[in-house]
Amino acid sequence: MRETGAAVRLVENSGMCYHETTDRRDDPVTEQEIERDMYARAVALIEERYPTGWGGAAVLRTEDGRCFTSVALENANSSVLLCIEVGAMCEAHKYNVKATHCLCVVRDDEHGPFKVLSPCGVCQERLRYWGAEVKVGVTTPDGALRFVPLGELQPYHWTAAYPEEELERFGR
């Protein structure tokens, strides 16, 4: 799946970045529309931020419909790098809004296809702060855009060993 950012422009407002489409003003309603919208936002950010070479971007959607985007920090010391999704997660946490979806998209160079990356184990733990129902984009053998709830990605998560009320103190 390759979509271009031709009909999309980046808008920055109050520290939040989102994309405004010029050909459609309605907010996405169905799950499929939300997922395609997130994918289009990630692709547009990659094309804007990384016009040549490697590029990666993440989009995190919240329960109030906002989308936060982020890219990985670049640094000569790889031990201090953070995943692509972390900036968007921090924004949602800063504004105290619950994440409902998260997607990470990369490409190897400006001529390569865009690929969805499943969240790493650390990012799965970070996203789990908002619950097992958070939907994440996952890597598929055919490259299809697919989201699954964290609970499906992690059927044996360690939180099952604790009563829900005990986990509430961690913000859930």
Report on this structure.
- The chain has 172 residues and is of the alpha+beta class.
- The chain has helices spanning 31-49, 86-94, 121-127, 150-153, 164-167; strands at 8-13, 16-21, 55-62, 67-70, 99-107, 115-116, 135-137, 147-149.
- Strands 3, 4, 5, 6, 7 and 8 form a six-stranded mixed β-sheet that branches.
- A hairpin with a 7-residue loop joins strand 5 and strand 6 (115-116).
- The longest helix is centred in the N-terminal third of the chain and has 19 residues, at 31-49.
- The termini are far apart.
- Residues 1-25 have low confidence and may be disordered.
List keywords for this structure.
single chain, 172 residues, alpha+beta, 6-stranded mixed beta sheet, 8 strands, 24% strand, disordered N terminus
Summarize the structure.
The protein has 172 residues and is of the alpha+beta class.
